[in-house]
Design brief:
binds S-adenosylmethionine, 11 helices, alpha/beta, flat, 5-stranded parallel β-sheet, 287 residues, 39% helix, 10 strands, single chain
């Protein structure tokens, strides 16, 4: 076990995780700007993309590239600098670092090395889309990108179709039709789906309907821009009872030991939860 006191004095540097706008520069927070100004180095997914942001906010901090193709070599270089006391901010091209973006290995290695990792709150496409979707915001599963190959995409969807929580996907406009077609086929045509397009940008729009309706919309639309796909959970699946694999005695034992009930109360509760007469549970307990 380890505890991180984020703002405690240490001789190591701090790794700041800084979200950046997903389309609207005004979504940059004061703290994000100040952090990017204050650190010694900014690790960027694409230095050219981040440079535009830095120019806009007049930030002159040194940059280094950190993306999926140089993660192996660059993680250890960044960790060495952090261990030597440099403060580093990590950003991706847009939104939260590590969320379907680079950062995961850097954070894991920093944590392993007891380097403080300080996250800043800020823009993220999934959650921003979710709260306006009209679909239940919790519980939810953030899935990110599904597999690009059709057969594997379908397999993944098969594994997700009985999930009762809201599902959130990222998808490129080039593969969106395929995703919606497979969703309709596997999840059923009536499942509610929301497409959140170009969130926070000038042409932001929300397409809300059944899987079939949204799929038909996509078929006849020239798809452009960025999309988040929000899918309602399956409300036809009965959730398994927590005691489904227990014997009656194990169930009673749980009530007595963990819920601190007397044997009499436990028998009554178990009978109620299992929807069987109390005398049956009583008989089993006293056998
Ligand atoms: N790290 C980012 C975040 O926190 O949201 C996500 C990066 S991921 C590589 C890019 C995907 O996020 C896009 O393909 C799209 O699915 C989604 N996305 C990003 N910006 C968006 C926007 N403004 N509107 C809708 N979806 C967006």
């Amino acid at each position: 076990m380890k505890a991180q006191q984020s703002y405690e004095e240490t001789d190591r540097g701090t790794l700041y995780l800084v979200p950046t706008p997903i389309g609207n520069l005004e979504d940059m927070t004061f703290r994000a700007i100040q952090t990017l100004k204050d650190v010694d180095l900014i690790a960027c997914e694409d230095t050219r993309v981040t440079q535009k942001l830095l120019n806009h906010f007049e930030i002159n901090t040194e940059k280094v590239s950190y993306h999926e193709h140089n993660v192996r070599t660059h993680t250890s270089e960044l960790i060495e600098k952090l261990l030597a006391g440099e403060n580093i901010a990590q950003v991706s091209d847009a939104g939260m670092p590590s969320i379907s973006d680079p950062g995961v290995e850097l954070v894991a290695t920093a944590v392993a090395q007891n380097i403080p990792v300080v996250p800043l709150p800020g823009p993220n496409a999934a959650l921003t889309a979710l709260i306006a979707s009209g679909i239940s915001p919790q519980p939810f599963t953030f899935y990110g990108f599904l597999n690009r190959k059709k057969s594997e995409l379908k397999e993944e969807l098969e594994g997700l179709k009985n999930k009762t929580e809201t599902l959130i996907f990222y998808e490129s406009p080039y593969r969106l039709k395929q995703l919606l077609e497979s969703l309709t086929e596997i999840f059923g045509s009536d499942r509610r789906v929301v497409l959140a397009r170009e969130v926070t940008k000038r042409y932001e729009e929300f397409i809300r309907g059944t899987a079939e309706e949204v799929s038909e919309w996509a078929e006849k639309t020239e798809l452009r821009g960025e999309f988040v796909v929000i899918v309602e959970g399956n409300d036809e699946v009965e959730e398994e009872h927590y005691w489904a694999n227990w014997t009656v005695l194990e169930h009673i034992d749980y009530k007595m030991n963990f819920e601190k009930m007397s044997s009499k109360q436990a028998i009554k509760e178990v009978a109620k939860e299992r929807e069987v007469p109390k005398r049956e549970i009583y008989a089993e307990y006293h056998q």
